[in-house]
Design a protein that fits this description.
With 211 residues, the protein is α+β, with helices and mostly antiparallel strands. The chain has six helices and seven strands, in the order ββαααββββαβαα. It has a four-stranded mixed sheet with strand order 6-5-4-7. It has a three-stranded antiparallel sheet with strand order 1-2-3, with no helix packed on it.
């Protein structure tokens, strides 16, 4: 499905087959190409989210499914499309723990947001008996900000909820975890999380309760 395991190197690689860019570029073609990129763990999020933001622009401009994109959008799409083969050069270690006797196992999670998108990522942090430390990206997830997104703090709150869901959905690891640490750089979100949900407005209260 596009994700390959190189057993000799014990690494994951991506196989993205890109054909020459079609002269007639429509919203249907763009969606088809974006959907064909298989990324179950979200390691390609920085690339895929840019394509999703572009697709959102097509919706905002009310372009039909089989309508040819305007010249400015076609140029933007061609630039994004030409960069996709670079993903085939990415090599990701399969093992997320440090070599040797593991003495420290922790999970570190981060979330952030902007006007265009919000996301979260999770790292596995491990140490061995020799005092060496190793951090490896385990998974990540992103969402395009809704058209009527409101304020940045609300989007930051959405990022925190996404991080909480990502942590809950983590696959079972081969080693026990000592502790979990989750971060957000939004002071207002931290205040909301420490407050009593009933004292917040309905939207914030519901989000805080889910987190």
């Amino acid at each position: 499905m596009g994700l390959l395991w190189h057993s000799s190197q014990d690494t994951f690689k991506y196989e993205i087959n890109i054909k020459p860019c079609l002269e007639l570029v429509t919203k249907r073609v763009v969606l088809s190409i974006i959907s064909s990129i298989f990324d179950s763990t979200g390691l390609l999020v920085p690339v895929i989210v840019c394509h999703k933001i572009f697709l959102q622009q097509l919706w905002l401009r009310q372009i039909g499914w089989d309508e040819e994109l305007p010249c400015d959008l076609q140029e933007t799409w061609k630039k994004l499309y030409r960069r996709l083969p670079v993903l085939n050069n990415i090599s990701i270690p399969r093992s997320v723990k440090i070599e040797g006797e593991v003495t420290t196992k922790q999970i570190y999670g981060f979330s952030d947001a902007s006007e265009r998108a919000f996301g979260a990522c999770v790292y596995i942090h491990s140490g061995n008996a020799n005092g060496k430390l190793h951090s490896q990206l385990q998974c990540s997830k992103s969402r395009v900000s809704p058209v009527k997104h409101g304020s940045i703090p609300r989007l930051e709150l959405c990022g925190v909820q996404l991080l909480a869901r990502l942590i809950k959905a983590l696959p079972i690891l081969c080693v026990p975890i000592d502790s979990i640490h989750l971060w957000t750089d939004s002071t207002l979100v931290l205040i909301w999380l420490q407050d009593i949900p009933k004292r917040c407005n309905t939207y914030v209260a519901n989000m805080v309760s889910k987190i």
